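OP here, attaching both records as promised.
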Amino acid sequence: MMIGEMPNGDYPLIVRHLMPTANRSTIAGEIVDASGLRFTYPQFADRVAKLAGALAACGVKQGETVAVLDWDTHRYLECFYAIPSMGCVLMTVNIRLSRDQVRYTIDHAGAKTVIAHPDFLPMLTAGDPDLNLERIIVVGDAGDFEVPPGVEMAEFYAITDAAAPEFDYPEIDERSRATMFYTSGTTGNPKGVYYSHRQLFLHTMSILATFGTAPAQGRFGADDVYMPITPLFHAHAWGFPYAATLLGTKQVYPGRYKTDTLLRLIEEEGVTFSHCVASVLRMMLDEAKVRKVDLSGKKMLIGGGALPEGLARAALQHGIDIFSGYGMSEACAVQTINHLTATEVAAPFEEQLQLRTRPGRPILLCDVRTANPDLSATAVGEEGEVVFRGPWLTRGYWRNEEASEELWRGGWLHSGDIGKFGADGALRITDRVKDVIKSGGEWISSLMLESLISQVEGVSESAVIAVPDVRWSERPMALVVPQDGYDLDVQAIRARLTEAAEAGAIPRYGVPEKIKIVDELEKTSVGKLDKKALRARYVEQVG
């Protein structure tokens, strides 16, 4: 069915309808790739149709799953639209997983077709489990890659350049699966989450409504220049590529993340809005100091973990409009956004640091609560597990009924985070259920300690984990990475924490006896602190 041939005026909520709806010839935005390629939105629509046609010509049939292993390129954005629009399921493969985990996720998803950058072809060679692939579409030269028996090979640009810029898109049920990807859990195999066309459509609408009505800062609109610094494989880059495309916003795709490339593109393309995890922004700020890059006026959303107060301070000193958000892979990414009110933006600098590090208030159409064990809502200021309801939450884990039931226990999606709502209506996360430190029967927030440590001069990043203690059962241990070239003083860290305890910000028993300077901290494949790995490494040393 061609665009515009909807029966009885029906207009389903599908990914294809997240393309710009205005006259495409009037859209000024463009799509820019780090390789130097540029496309207008009309050209982008043609490229999407050509990719859909090329895949169909290769034998990809409606209902199949197509896996993509690529850097953040224009090709990936085209896959965001072409694959679901032809009635297939887009599987965004987490390229930072181990080789065996990548193979497991492709096999578990049942993908028969893979689109892969040459950098990732080694992941598709013989290994465990066996991959039942029918075709591999490689971007560029496959080099000496040994094609598995029975697998067809094609080159991305060769097949798309030969395709027509039109495609007879099929009629699609808006509740059918459009995308899936796998969470990078720290235990067991990764788990697959999946989303329908309708869910992606509604999530996009909420993102645009929430960010378009931001009262005083952090707005996102058609006149912005958008560049993702959250991988496209990670929860659809939090949904912003769909939102930016619908608006006709100028988009910049940086390819493989390299700090110098990111800063160059920000300068040359005039990027105004982006998002990333805290560790990536820290590296960018360090490089910006050396290169003297002006980042003033840039809007930066931090997610994937807490925004440390020290990082917020550094970003504000660079003139960055920094703010945080909160969500999870199972929630299609975004659930709360920390847009400040006009009054809050006018607050003194030190107060703003506190305000900007909150996860914020629920975005439109989200039902977020902190819950007691019986799932009743906690009172304002009281802690509970953060749970969700909403129109775009994953319905479960793909082919994992037991884990799905646990995820949706009691009819709410469980985050595994502990938090509380303040009188301002904003959520604060106090810890992970599995990461909270219980010392002498009292809870100690590792996130609060990490935020305080981040404020010490010379600290790059930190993690606080629980270590066994004969007397108190558990005690906190701080692992701290210094900034490059900085001789970090452990006593300065202890003094800052002691000062906070004396001021009543943390309990006195919250000050850790063990503070260790380390070269690096283990991370998950999406850049979050891997506290399970840190405990396995350092608890054994002190046990």
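Record two, same layout:
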Amino acid sequence: MTDQLQTRRDPIEDDEIDLLQLFGQIWAGKVTIIVFAIFGVLAGLFYVLNTPPTYQADSLLQLEEKASQLGLPESLADLSGDSPRAVTEIEIIRSRMVVGRAVSRLNLDWYAAPLQAPVIGHLLATQDLPLPAWGFLAQFARPGDAIRLDLLDVPAVWLVEKIRLTAEGEGRFTLTLPNGQQVQGQVGEPVIAEDVGLSLRVGALVAEPGRVFILEQLSEIEAIARVADALSIAEQGRNSGILRMTYEADSPETARRTLDAIAQGYLSQNADRSAAEADSGLAFVESQLPAAREAVQEAEAALNTFRQDEEAINLSAEGEALLTQIRTLEAELIDLAAVEEEVAERYTRNHPEYQRLLNNRERIEDRLASLREEVRALPATQREVLNLTQDLELAREVFIQLRNRAQELQVLRASNIGNVRIVDTARTAERPVSPRKLLVLAIAGLLGLMCGTAVVLTKRYLRKTVDGSEELEAMGLPVFATLNRHPSAPQSAKGRKNLPLVAVETPGDLFVEGLRSLRTGLHFGMLDAQTRSVVFTSPAPGVGKSFISANLAVVAAQSGQKVCLIDADMRRGQQRKYFGLSKAHPGLAQVLSGEVELASALVPTQVENLSVLSSGPFPPNPSELLMREDLSRLIKLLDGDFDLIIIDAPPVLAVTDPVVLGRAAGAVIGVARFGRTHPGEVLAMKKTLETSGVKLSGAILNDFDPKSARGRYGYSYAYNARYSYKSGE
């Protein structure tokens, strides 16, 4: 062999990701990806149809800022910090006190629903699907089934225990209790089992006989927890005092009624709380009124007595001004004292609101002390009149304020109105909030695409195959030809009597053009070979070496060369099927064993210049026959009569025959199949031959698919249709 055939190429190492190649691999597996996407969409559709819809009701509440219920001035009420806080009110709404009222009002601790089938329960209950007449299917929910409970009371030990109700037809039903006991009942009539403490009344029942319903009573705590879990509350904006409440349920009416009951329960407790505060304030004010009235009377009597005794006159303008200022400040101190009582109930003395109130009171007391010093500078008689007048005005102010407060608190208690109002009543959206059909289908389809892509890439990674001539060249194997896929190429010769010779039937096909290129390469590559014989082998069966050998022999013969085709596979040889020879016709096995002469076994074919030596009847010892010196003598004899000897050998990794044939032939060429042969198999074939002293001259890439090659590498290695031709053109 020439040095050209022995040329080795260093492997090309490229650790970078080729995006074009990656896209090509994905495109090559587009069918798999589309199938996964379709299955994903179908799975999403099943999920959408088999998932109960969830409806959401919403409502808006306003937390109103209220002035002090004790009728304080706005400036003083602001100091008290008596403003509803959203976080506090949200927790109150979610409390057992409020939610429990809704649970009790709507009997949300009762559960009654048809029994649903496993896996496809909702789909079966909502879609009128045709079902086989199997008895066990009669118990599961179907479209139109409904039940309404008017009463359900079970003993404490049966809370959260399921009671089975089986419809009997005509309004009759049978109850199967948790203890196994069965009780008969009729729609609209109470069912009372005194021995176990059960009371039940079914208000309505729509179902075919045999249908089963599940009844259950939850504990109060669990029922409240379930309602609270489906309830969401958030403040709209910062410090807006507007709360948005939402509630999710399996039906629009249930969502609306439940949220409305929660809102009404919160409104009721808020009003009750306001009334309780009013009652407490009114009791305190009424207890102070008698003492305030008596103080006014005593102050009037003292002032009148002093005037009569001293014959005092009215105050001067300066005295009136001092008296007015003192009276105003003392009134503010009284108001601050009332506010302090309320603030003390809410905060500690270190709280900023409490400290601000104390600072304000200290400022007023300092001013009041200054005014009293000015009063001491007045004449004694005028000073005394001023003091007595001041006492009278102060007593009157206290009495008037207490009387006004009492009237305000009486009105507040009678009105029973809190500081919360419902802005928007509960209303349910027409469309369910889940499942979101389009979103689910889109996500399911996307997941299908992703899974399909992952499968394609994983399969590609785990099942590495020879997909290009550069991979064979990287292993040190010159590539003589890359043969395009031919639709007539047999995938398996087993069970077939005749195999096609495409070189005769379709001489202009790209596959045949590749054989012509192979013929030319062999012609110049074997000029220095000992004999003009070439062995075609492969790592494993099914790569198409017999198909190549037969059609190459035809192409070589058509060029004017005298060609001999030898079927050296004396275990599963198939060359006879290409040329219509009988299985009993003597062949290589009989020639090597000396049973027949070469001239009797060698058969001319319908193709001019082409003769075939089939394998003949399969012998029991093919390896021993090939190891005789008769094989070398046979090849030398044929080399004298033919221009080219093509030997179709068995796979290297299956038997040792190719090793023996390779030592006697002029060249050995391995055949790899595009997208099927593993690179490790090619390396194993090469190593097996080289270990035995046989050098693999080169390789052929068979069954090449240009479309897949463009998908995987972005370009094609084989002959393009633009360069094909037909005879006579």
